[in-house]
Hints:
The complex is a heterodimer. Chain A has strands at residues 3-6, 11-14, 19-21, 23-26, 33-38, 44-50, 56-59, 62-65, 75-77, 86-95, 101-105, 109-114. By secondary structure, chain A is an all-beta fold. In chain A, the strands form 3 sheets. In chain A, strands 2, 5, 6, 10, 11 and 12 form a 6-stranded mixed β-sheet that branches. In chain A, strands 3-9-8-7 form a 4-stranded antiparallel β-sheet, with no helix packed on it. A two-stranded antiparallel ribbon of chain A has the order 1-4. By secondary structure, chain B is mainly β. Chain B has no helices and 11 strands. Chain B is globular, with a radius of gyration of 13 Å. In chain B, 38% of the residues are buried. The A-B interface holds A 31-32, 41-46, 49, 51, 89, 93, 95-108 and B 2, 4, 31, 33, 42-43, 45, 48, 50, 55-58, 90, 92, 97-109.
Amino acid sequence: GNSVTQMEGPVTLSEEAFLTINCTYTATGYPSLFWYVQYPGEGLQLLLKATKADDKGSNKGFEATYRKETTSFHLEKGSVQVSDSAVYFCALSDLRAGGSYIPTFGRGTSLIVHP
Amino acid sequence: DSGVTQTPKHLITATGQRVTLRCSPRSGDLSVYWYQQSLDQGLQFLIQYYNGEERAKGNILERFSAQQFPDLHSELNLSSLELGDSALYFCASSVDQLLSTDTQYFGPGTRLTVL
């Protein structure tokens, strides 16, 4: 079946450092890819998405490029802030019986940013 | 605020008991999804309802059941509870889920503790 693998955390950075969180996927076909973020005590919220190869999703300074050749969707940010501390989930759309696309999530990567 | 509400926020109960978790989707959303988030299993999809009917099923145990009512709110019933059922339970909603690019909106979750 389809799956998503993320780098294990926690990732600990100082403010203004460069962030990369690796994500690779295994899928049949060409799924859409997503990054969700979960702030402490809250539910997940969509951060960005890409729907086809070479698409770049971006939001709030975060970027990720859909790389079909390496089956990857790494999340990057040039300069992190303390407020970016959260858990980040990579996901792909997975077609289920019944015709619905349900996200398959990675295990999540915790990011801790120190002042 | 995603617009998805869940009650209660916290629930503490004993093994063998039965509990009901409630979710109200965003206004206009017809699909409701239930997820379980635990440290060992990560974020697992349980079940989806669309306009009152079951649409997709994930890793939902037979002890668990769900329904969606005519006003579109949904309830997740967990019975014969075991210690391993302790987890965060999220509800999400979307207009539908027929497109791979569709976004889900997550509620804040219900934290269930089984003692």
